[in-house]
Amino acid sequence: MKKKIVTIGGGTGQYTLLRGLKNYDVEIMALVSMMDDGGNTGQLRDEFGVLPAGDLRRCLIALSDESSILRELFEYRFGDDCVGNRIIAALQNIAGNEKYIQEISRILRIKGKVLPITINETTLYAETNKGRILEGQTQVSYSAQQDEKIARIWLSPRAFIFNQAAESLREADLIVISPGDLYGSILSSLIVEGFKEAISETKAKIIYVCNLVTKQGTNNFKVSDFVREIELYLGRKLDYIVCNTKKPSSEIVDKYIWENSSFVEIDSEDARIIKSDLLLEQKSDGRTIARHDIEKVSRIIMELI
Asked: How far apart are the C-alpha atoms of 206 and 191, rounded to whole Å?
């Protein structure tokens, strides 16, 4: 019987991780944050009242056949308008909240399953240590000022874990928390009601692939800070933390400093930390960006299953 790996997250981090894991003979289930309200996704939420499509679309594309023309169709854009997001919104209205992802998965012939963490319409809120209230995933992710930290987050109205997502957590052999937006994508998934109960019933090991760089809300965070926040909302200890040790070039360090970001430092000798050179510096749209070497990350994960 194939081992079951569940990933938790949203955005580029989970997309990248899934592209690596799908090359192994395992059963993959991606649990995706439903808090995204930015860009084309936010426009569709406001216009049609549908659940956010952007992070779901990325995960579906990651697990699809990379040579498929349908994959290209789901990524195609007319300016800021994403065709894939429109198709997902349409299928949601046709098939309903519980079945539309099954239909898209069948169309794209994905390897594994993609599931929303919740099918309830909800909004993410945060309060900073300065007492400011941030409303919506975009504000929570990008509006904390240089001297601010996120003190707490919550959802309103109440959101409950999707029953299939809870079942996948209970049956998993390995749960991987993806790198990504700590408060907007990761912790926002952990606070849906029923999540902690499902985690308490699993025998799976839980791994966190630590972020490479900080951003608003996590300014000056080190590895121990990310781990502390995740364990606080997770309600239990992580089994392993996968961290990068490769030193970035001065060019990319300067680029992230200009964006008020910095590379995450390992500040602990915790025995659970797995250290490796995991940094790739890639060119994208004429600029250099930091990404995980997903082949190396995937190999580490497979060794832990």
From this structure: 17
